[in-house]
Amino acid sequence: MEFLVASAIGILTASGLYLVLRLRTFPVIMGTSLLTYAVNVFLFASGRLTVGAPPILTDAARYTDPLPQALVLTAIVISFGMTAVVVMIALGAYLGGNDDHVDDPSTEAEERT
Amino acid sequence: MTHWLILPIVLPAFLAPFIVLAARYHITIQRVLSLFGALALVVVGLGLSVEASDGTVMLYQLSDWAAPFGIVLVGDRLSTLMVTLTAVLALFVLLYVIGSKWDERGRHFHALFQFQLMGIMGAFLTGDLFNLFVFFEVLLIASYGLMIHAGGTPRLRAGVQYVLYNLLGSTLFLFALGAIYAETGTLNMADLAQRVALIDAGATVGIRIAAVLLLMVFAVKAAVVPLHFWLPSSYAEAPGPVAALFAIMTKVGAYAIIRVYTLIFPPELAATADLHTIWLLPAALLSLALGMIGVLAAKQLDRMVAFSVIGSMGMVMISIALFTPEGIAAALYYIVHSTLAAGALFLIADLARAGRDNLDLTAQPQVAGAKLTSALFFVAAIAMVGVPPLSGFVGKLLIMDAATQSGLWVWIWAVILGASLLSLVGFGRAGSVVFWKSRSVAPEEGATPAEAPSALSYVAVGGLLALLVAHTLMAGPATQYAMAISNQLFGPERYLTTVLETPGKLSDGKEEAH
Question: Which chain B residues are closer than 8 Å to A58 by Cβ?
Fold first, then answer.
């Protein structure tokens, strides 16, 4: 299972990074979403992978570390909100300038003239 | 336990929704509330600084949970100094906003401003790494709103870059936190300081990766080259007063580096000892050089000021990267100076907009109120470039003096002096083109003269510059206090015992809870 989780994090991160390095806003936003998924799984695994154990202290010897779950919850909420904000700002920039490139517009403007 | 410590976070946190909900359509009430908030923060900040000045470490346990389990706020000399600095800068920026009526050009300026203050204050006061992440996000979300305040396509485009870059920074921060938690099982800074020191010398791979990731995150915030690409466009396109407030945001990164790399990964820790000399110092030298080359190359006044912020952050980082008590003390003196100077310069760049279509560095008809604006620019430029008699010069001397202990002092001196010359030429050229040459350009026929900026705007800028003068005159006591802060950072026993040994809920059951 460790291999499965580790490779999932790796693949998500790799594809996220690839998309982030694209030029247009839509792939870049998709890339950041994939990266946040990767980091959420990574945070979840940072408390060690335990199967079939409750996240509370009982008399039983085995338990899941509950703190990473709380951290992941916070991270999910924040990344969801952030993604929504960036989608709105990117839409505003696209509709205003009719251009969805991420990089600075000044050089393109010089090329056009 | 003093409850004053949480006030810098709670006060803006309550004021902001109140402004949105109750004073939505009344700009005057919003202004009064916002000013009241900023003034109260200055008073609280000063009070906390006085209490911390004798070396006391104040602790606030949220819900009375004891330290490694609950979240704590810690106020020592460094945190309270940064809180006071933020509050003072915010007060003058707010005066400028009201004087220049920037808050009427879009909605919810004051509410976002208060949320921004809440995030910055929280980042300075928290004693928990994950909580630091949360407060980073609070200040970032507010800053996104402030940055695109009043709209416009160029500003939105710069906003997209800014948000995306910071989103990546946040993801990196989470990776670093996950790695630290996996290695140590805690995120409380004081607890981490003890546990990291206990890690076996042969098993430091994970914690070293975490330390590098964390340094990168803070370097993004502090705009250290090569992680500075978000800064020039977003600061230049942001509304003038917002950019002035952002002058403190890069310092949040510097603060976090000072805090984490003196407390958790101190220079004597073998696993991360080379981080400062091998990575941080060259990056800082590059930042200073590149920032000041940018000052010389910039084609707009606001972009030039943005590059000078990168340069001055490079100067701060050089001093921090020395990681000696003298170096940190010099960095703290320079942080106060550079925050005030950068804030004033962004406001002056906004003043110079009166009557100009753009801030291009070309001779255009004289701006309204040019005499006063140009005089203020002259003073602020002297401060930023670091020539006598203002505090930039004192700060630079302190940094160069601290650098003599380093083996690389020839490089440091050469870059600092060369960069100073470049920025002197850059600022001199900009000032003469914008304010001097414009005297010989006749205004267009029939053009109505623009309205001069209001007196309140000038009071705000003048206040920041007066503080710079005071910072120069009081350089003796200021450096002594910076040295006291630095000694406290390099002798963290009192911090550790206060945080970890103050009783609270669960502190009796520590053993069984683990």
Answer: none
Of B160, B177, B179, the CB nearest to A89: B160
A33 interfacial to chain B (CB closer than 8 Å): no
Q: What is the distance in angstroms between the Cα of B140 and the nearest Cα belonging to chain A?
A: 9
Query: Considering chain B, what percentage of its residues have pLDDT values greater than 90?
Result: 73
| Residue A58 domain-assigned (yes or no) | no
CA distances from B40 to A29, B47, B131, B139 (A): 40, 10, 24, 19
pTM of the model: 0.93
pLDDT score of B251: 95
Backbone angles phi, psi at B46, to 5 degrees: -65, -45
What pLDDT digit, counting tens, does each position of B122-168 carry?
999 999 999 999 999 999 999 999 999 888 888 998 999 999 999 99
Q: Are B357 and B365 in contact (CB under 8 A)?
A: no
Pairing state of beta strands B58-61 and B72-75?
Answer: antiparallel
Q: Tell me, what CATH number does A28's domain have?
A: 1.10.287
Residue B218 belongs to some domain of the structure:
no
Distance CA B340, CA B7 (A): 24
d(CA A47, CA B321): 33
Cα distance from B26 to chain A (closest Cα, Å)? 26
B175 touches chain A (CB under 8 A): yes
For residue range B414-440, list pLDDT tens digits in order: 999 999 999 999 999 999 998 888 888
∠ CA(A60), CA(A65), CA(A67), 5° rounding? 140
C-alpha dihedral over B492, B493, B496, B502, to 10 degrees?
-140
The DSSP string of B11-56 is HHHHHHHHHHHHSTT-HHHHHHHHHHHHHHHHHHHHHHHHHHTTS-
Has residue B298 been placed in a domain?
yes
A89 in contact with chain B, both atoms CB, cutoff 8 A: yes
Number of domains in chain A: 1
Q: Does the predicted interface ipTM exceed a cut of 0.85?
A: yes
